[in-house]
Amino acid sequence: MGESSPPLRYVDIGINLSDPMFQGTYHGKQAHESDLDDVVKRAQEVGCAKFMVTGSDLVESAQAIEIARKYPGFCYATVGVHPCQAKLFDEYPGGAESMIQELRKLATESRDSGLAVAFGEIGLDYDRLFLSEKAPQLKYFEAQLDLAVELQMPLFLHSRAASEDFERLIGAKLPQLPKGGLVHSFTGTMEEMNRLVALGLDIGVNGCSMKTEENLEVVKAIPLERLQIETDGPWCEIRPSHASAKFLQGAPELPKSVKKEKWQKGCMVKGRNEPVAIVRVAHVIAQVKGITVEEVCEAAWNNSIKMFGLGEQL
């Protein structure tokens, strides 16, 4: 790289910073002190200049907003209720209507104060119907899409094993959403990806999006103008068993990682993904597509800023 090359800039569009693991808590047990500041700093040091902190229910959305407040101009929140939590609407004190009201209030206030940039994580998940059945998922995905249209917020979307219903519901609303949306942590088929892109949606890629050879073929085919990148930490790390691992040759080294019980300052935790690893996601995508990491980063950065703003102008 010549000296004139600008440093790489990343947006991690899907990071679950409100997860207790970033406070040092695993399965309800405290293993080490909170290292959230270190996690954020490590990511900033490799050029990760913007985070979108995922909200997946009312409580988590409020936590995501607090994190955005703590790291202004760097962290931004999404506000919404994940399909696996759809049953919470009917269980809410005062019923679903009052939960929708709460959601509207939270989204409006955080959008107006510049802390929330997307409505989500919303969608459908037919892989885990034991968490929330189909009927409430469909009903409250639609209700939340209506809210997003009302508030004119771009969408942060989740679709698992539900492509037909997902595309039907989203297709009906997209014409009313000029900024469109992003299907995050995409693991679907080539046909699904092509249909989503044809609808005008962006595709979010992380370690889980690149587990199999079939996944890699899909990633290779995602148009650059529709690509955004994420870690989805603390989940979705790139593992040695993944098809993507063979493309890690020459990828930036990650900080040393240790078991949570042996945690020390400055180290990553084994099995806990964090945003510094976005450099490896971009590296693998570049290898798979046969282009430079610079091209991947520039396209993804522009796509994220165009859709979500994140306090930047293009």
From TrEMBL:
**InterPro entries documented for this protein:** DNase_TatD-rel_CS, Metal_Hydrolase, TatD-like, TatD-type_Hydrolase
UniProt keyword terms in alphabetical order: Hydrolase, Metal-binding, Nuclease
Which GO cellular component does the record give, naming just one? cytosol
User: Any idea which GO molecular function terms this record carries?
Assistant: 3'-5'-DNA exonuclease activity; metal ion binding
Binding residues annotated for a divalent metal cation 2, in chain numbering: H158, H184
What Pfam families does this protein's entry cite? TatD_DNase
**Could you confirm whether the keyword tRNA processing appears in this record?**
no
Entry keyword Metal-binding: yes
Binding site residues for a divalent metal cation 1: E121, D232
**CDD domains assigned:** TatD_DNAse
Q: Which domain of life is it from?
A: Eukaryota
Q: Which PANTHER family match?
A: DEOXYRIBONUCLEASE TATDN1 (PTHR10060:SF15), TATD FAMILY DEOXYRIBONUCLEASE (PTHR10060)
Q: Which family does it belong to?
A: Belongs to the metallo-dependent hydrolases superfamily. TatD-type hydrolase family.
Q: What is this protein called?
A: Uncharacterized protein
